[in-house]
Design a protein that fits this description.
- With 85 residues, this protein is mainly alpha-helical.
- The chain is built from 5 helices and no strands.
Length: 85
């Protein structure tokens, strides 16, 4: 999966990889609900060159609740830090 996301940055392979990623999402739906995998994908998107549609495509593969979970975790960590100071 991570290799496919990296290959998504190659404009020659992008459409083929998009089909492959859609197939992976269909076969492994639970993987696209994992916060740890989403964070790894964000690192890849940040460290490689992608066109806007490629970034959007990869992000849209994931369950939207992941972003909410990440934001809520960070909010909770911030609150805990404020209370310990």
């Amino acid at each position: 999966m991570l290799k496919a996301v990296i290959e998504m940055g190659n404009s020659v392979l992008a459409k083929k990889v998009a089909v492959e990623l859609n197939g992976l999402k269909f076969r492994h739906q639970n993987a696209f609900k994992q916060v740890s995998l989403f964070k790894k994908i964000l690192v890849l998107l940040e460290s490689h060159h992608y066109r806007l549609w490629q970034r959007q495509f990869v992000l849209d593969l994931f369950d939207k609740d992941i972003i909410r979970t990440i934001v809520l975790e960070e909010d909770m960590e911030d609150e805990m830090e404020c209370h310990t100071e």
